[in-house]
Amino acid sequence: MKALEKKTALVTGAERGIGRAIALRLAADGAAVIVNYLADAAAAAAVVAEITAAGAQAHALQADVSDPAQVDAMFGAIPELHVLVNNAGVGTPGMLGEIDPSVFDGVFAVNVRGVMLCAQAAIARMPAGGRIVNISSSTAVHPIPGMSAYVASKAAVRALTEVWAKELGARGINVNSVLPGPTSPGMADLAPPELRDAVARASPFGRLGQASEIADAVAFLCGPDARWVSGHHLMVNGAASA
User: Fold this and answer.
1) What is the spatial order of strands in the sheet that 174-180 belongs to?
2) Band of pLDDT at residue 242, cut at 50, 70 and 90
3) DSSP readout, 195-217?
4) Mean pLDDT of 50-73
5) 163-190 pLDDT, tens digit each
6) Whole-structure pTM over 0.90, yes or no?
7) What is the pLDDT of residue 189?
8) How far is CA 120 from its chain centroid?
9) Nearest partner of 92 among 155, 18, 149, judged by Cα
10) Tens-place pLDDT, residues 188-224
11) Could you tell me where the DSSP H helices lie in the chain?
């Protein structure tokens, strides 16, 4: 029996990058996967097609996770949920003197409010044994200049993870976070080549992480072997110190 057989998993922002890799991995572990996406229906459909072609179950649901009404509508189509992976996120660069308050608010709307809204809706449908995995970032521990809003939002996700682990443990729900380092495919692909090379050198492995390697860590936290792991932050960054 596969680790997540007879389980339903929702992965937010699953149409590309790390989210796509997580959706594929959880499906390979037996889960019926709900592929959440914001706007790119074709990309989400491609993920669903790849999963179903491999003999697993999946379907796509559109929702802006920062919008309470859209989150309610999405979860209204999910009668029971066993795994929630809060992956959807945005990052807008800017030094302190350049950050527009509306941009700051927009980053927190998706990266923090969206995580909370989805978690609130999920626990109303999640039985004992459920898993919530929040995707934070290694920048929450090793901050980089020019990413104040993103770094602060991902640090908030770490804090929420610790609080929810204590709140939901009595219900048998485990809550953890994964802190990816620079990853491809992912946000690292948007960086200038010289910056990508620099962050690759920050790891003793001398390379960027792969989205599938983040997905492997998430799969562990979603599976039965992590039943006594909660309130933990799993750094997946190839031992990079920055």
Assistant:
1) 58-62, 32-37, 8-11, 83-86, 131-135, 174-180, 233-236
2) low
3) HHHHHHHTSTT-S-EEHHHHHHH
4) 98
5) 999 999 999 999 999 999 998 887 777 7
6) yes
7) 75
8) 16
9) 149
10) 777 778 777 887 888 999 999 999 999 999 999 999 9
11) 17-28, 41-53, 68-76, 101-108, 114-123, 148-168, 193-201, 211-222
If one compares 17 and 196, the residue with the highest pLDDT of the two is 17
Sorted by where each starts, the structural domains of the chain and their CATH numbers stand as 8-235 (3.40.50.720)
Please classify residue 35 by burial: count the beta carbons closer than 10 Å to its beta carbon, then call 0-12 exposed, 13-18 middle and 19+ buried.
Answer: buried
CA distances from 232 to 99, 125, 151, 189, 196 (A): 31, 23, 18, 28, 28
For residue 233, give both structure tokens: 């932050």
pLDDT at 38 over 90: yes
Q: Residues 94, 101: contact at Cβ < 8 Å?
A: no
Which residues belong to the active site? 150
Two tokens, residue 227: 């039943």
Structure-block tokens of residue 228: 């006594």
Task: State the number of CA atoms in the 13 A half-sphere of 55 facing the CB.
Answer: 4
Burial (Cβ within 10 Å: 0-12, 13-18, ≥19) of residue 46: middle
